[in-house]
Amino acid sequence: MAITIKEVAQRANVAPSTVSRVISNDPRISEKTKVRVRKIMERLGYHPNFIARSLAKRSTRIIGLVLPSSSNVFYQNLFFPAILQGLSEGAQKEQYSLLLSTGKTEDEIYEGVVKMVQGGIVDGVILLYSRMNDHILTYLRDRAFPFVSIGKPYDFIEEITYVDNDNVLAAEQATDYLIQLGHERIGFIGDDLTFVKTLDRLFGYERALKRAGIVLSGEYIIHEDFSHEGGQAAAKRILSIDEPPTALVMSDDFLALGVVHSLREMGLRTPEEISIVSFNQVLFPEPSFHGLTSVDINIFDLGYQAAKSIIQKLQTGDAPTGSIIPHHFVERHSCKSIKRTAMTLTY
Amino acid sequence: MAITIKEVAQRANVAPSTVSRVISNDPRISEKTKVRVRKIMERLGYHPNFIARSLAKRSTRIIGLVLPSSSNVFYQNLFFPAILQGLSEGAQKEQYSLLLSTGKTEDEIYEGVVKMVQGGIVDGVILLYSRMNDHILTYLRDRAFPFVSIGKPYDFIEEITYVDNDNVLAAEQATDYLIQLGHERIGFIGDDLTFVKTLDRLFGYERALKRAGIVLSGEYIIHEDFSHEGGQAAAKRILSIDEPPTALVMSDDFLALGVVHSLREMGLRTPEEISIVSFNQVLFPEPSFHGLTSVDINIFDLGYQAAKSIIQKLQTGDAPTGSIIPHHFVERHSCKSIKRTAMTLTY
DNA sequence: TTGAAAGCGCTAACAA
DNA sequence: TTGTTAGCGCTTTCAA
């Protein structure tokens, strides 16, 4: 067994409570005894037992991270490590630790969250996603347990602390950009519409089209996983349309790469025959690498701010409702102008 | 405050210890009281407090994960999420949780590990890397604290539980493959040589060359980060050599993509002018996608087995010293034969 | 400025 | 089959 506070107290000829106060650097303890006790802690190699402390203080300084249930896809995308890095740095700064949810199915994850929360393992929770009708969010909210959502919540937006980009605006700008280039047959490819960010991006896309007086076509809106298979399926769908789009807005770089690749295999080149704008900007930051024109959503900042928000909430009991992380449109080489003026030159 | 075991006991007219035994499904308790107590737990919405249980049992069922200190690169590579997925599944299966180390620098990480271990937060630790002269490993070993290393340890290989591929053999096979294709000027690009896996792969590369009677050239061995910048730097180095290699063995897909890309920008095409074999196989499993001939090291299995090994160690007090995960050579389109017979045809 | 003592919620001898 | 009791190692009133 390891050294306890009692043994330190004995050696130092003080009460355990005094040692405890030395640990937390209580100002009521004289410098002299502090120095003496610290020396003995050092000599004995004493380290406080966090579990005992947690039990007494009813706080662990551990934050639970909840991944989405479609985590197989999540694990194959650089979004996850990027956001973890931000979370990790934000937590480390305030001496918090991060506990991962391990479940695969929705039920497993739910059970895991209940265990973390009711078991007193975590002081707060961060949801690494936001989707509609989420049981876990409802559970946390019903219990008034501190949590932060990465992604704007679908309901109760006024009362939930979240961190997000302005996805509507970002998608609108991306779509506008394509419209400016002369495109009118513009498609949208996103993943599961239960995710709020997909809804938002779709909404921004639609808003841009409407404002430009372009009629929406249901055929042009496609939903697939953020995976290579998803990309392939999406590419097939696109080519099966009578009047296929000349440009695409896509909700993720990985998905976009898959689509671009599949389209190329089917004989459709980017940007010559089809223009592409995507989201996330995690795959090699260099502009020259894959050449996807894309919206950089600053994933690291998203994670960092989420950690900051939950910690603030835990420490002050309150936190800003919504934090919006700025995005940046990064123009590269996956889009081509098809304005009539440009076209006539070609004729 | 939440419901405690005492309140359940009162309502059920039993002693707290009986409730405790019901929770752990102790066979000594009669079915009748079990049912009664469970009903009351249900009705009160009781959930055991894990912290209290952990303190009493001196075990938390939490496993600490330690990332390498060069984690900025780690976070930008799909190796990390892939191994996490394996770890996660292995942990979930046995009802263990995963705690992440959050530090950036070596010192921060070391402090974090000490805190986890001495603080009694974790029952065991998994090192997600293996490098020579690792303080953390030494610390854990000195304390005889249960841990598993992902990657063969540099020292004390007999007594440390680890999970790894046969990287020497894999690199030897990859190099052999290039030799079979007629290459003799073969380079090796890896990252930091303090990582054991890089050492092993380098060793396998050298062994294959020696066996084929090819003289090693120090110029042909390059070390760079697993990042795009690293790839760029490596590409420059290669082109600066008087007699540049006609083929490369590389220790990571991400690095390889960066190198391939940079080389192409500098006018050297793959596989026409330079052949490439790499490692990891995390970036889109489809053979057609990026076309890199590569060694699939089954990262998921590596993580899954690591979780399994540490849990076995925690439960039985013992575990196999080394588990070797099989690798698979995946032939694609990044290598070209330059055998003399083929060459003469061209002349 | 320090100490004594109770208690955080649970488990695990030992008794019955 | 169940209850009693003494901790696990720390914090925190209350008292001195």
TrEMBL record, chains A, B:
The keyword Transcription applies. InterPro entries: HTH_LacI (IPR000843), LacI/GalR-like_sensor (IPR046335), Lambda_DNA-bd_dom_sf (IPR010982), Peripla_BP_I (IPR028082). It comes from the Bacteria. SMART domains: HTH_LACI. One of its GO terms (molecular function) is transcription cis-regulatory region binding. Residues 3-57 form the HTH lacI-type domain. Keywords: DNA-binding, Transcription, Transcription regulation. Pfam families: LacI (PF00356), Peripla_BP_3 (PF13377). The keyword Transcription applies. This is LacI family transcriptional regulator. The lineage of its organism: Bacteria, Bacillati, Bacillota, Bacilli, Bacillales.
